[in-house]
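hey so i finally got around to running the thing on that chain from the lab meeting. sorry it took forever, my laptop kept dying and i had to restart like 3 times. anyway pasting the input first so we r on the same page abt which one it is
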Amino acid sequence: MGEIRVAIAGVGNCASTLVQGIEFYKNAREDEKVPGLMHVNFGGYHVRDVRFVAAFEVNRQKIGKDLAEAIWAEPNVAVKFCDVPKTGVKVSAGPVLDSVASHMREPFRVYDDSRVEPVDVAEVLREADADLLINYLPVGSYAASRAYAEACLRAGCAFVNCIPEFIATDPAWARRFEEKGLPIAGDDVKSQLGATILHRVLAQLCVDRGVEIDETYQLNLGGDTDFLNMTVEDRLKTKRVSKTEAVTSLIPYEVPTRIGPSDYVPFLGDKKICYIFLKGRKFGNRPITLTAKLEVEDSPNSAGVVIDVIRAVKLALDRKIGGVLTSMCSYAFKHPPVQVPDSVAKQWVEEYIQQKRQK
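ok and heres what got predicted. didnt touch it at all, straight out
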């Protein structure tokens, strides 16, 4: 069915694991279950059909390097699980705007704008003939995310918003992409098996089994630059909203809730530790308390979902579908336009794969 031409904004840990994963799974067999993949074949597209054609960064140690080399540059700490051959894609200097908080300029090794001029993102996307751009910018990149979305509209490129900036869920942005006949998916990608999806499952279980939830929280610790960036509360507003709504949307009554990044622990590296607490009442109004701890490598969790989103967006382009991809958004993102139980969203995605020319 041809290749899927992908551009990336932000060559951090999540991008590193995605780039590795495309190489790692290129020979995955379609006739058997493959660990780590939800779909080996997604609507006719194999993982190996993904090709990276452009990448944008503000890190001076990544700009100008081949993407296969840039994914290992500091401060990236994602584990290496696959050798990646040269891609032929040189990382371009993207606009800084608000993608870098003041306390992150040195950790991110931000380029000197008196020596380096950012590229015209739309022009690079057009020259690369990119099908879609993945937004992997740091949390809190309000203006920068919208600048990349605008560039996609100018270039005729689909947009996948993996961070908690509300773009796909903004009717005005959704309408603009629909008018251009371009798909958009977002916002804030769910992990393959992470804190949010686990918390959702536990909350849904209580609701389904008649347990009244009285209070719940989710605490997250990590050691990569994502957590360092989020030590400033101003960068966290939409992140807290996104993670909280992902859980509370499944509970049909008000519940005292606290969810969000809790601390930066440098020696954890790319490891993320999540603590979930849930207190409620069961039969006879008797108390029940549930606690769970989850430890994961954070970055592969993102790639395990995005690898499906990429192919869903390409199917939409093939089918000439513009605007928000409702089914994939509900399945793959914490803050989609429509919140439904994950089992429902999964069924929607399977139906979407089977459809021919409609959402």
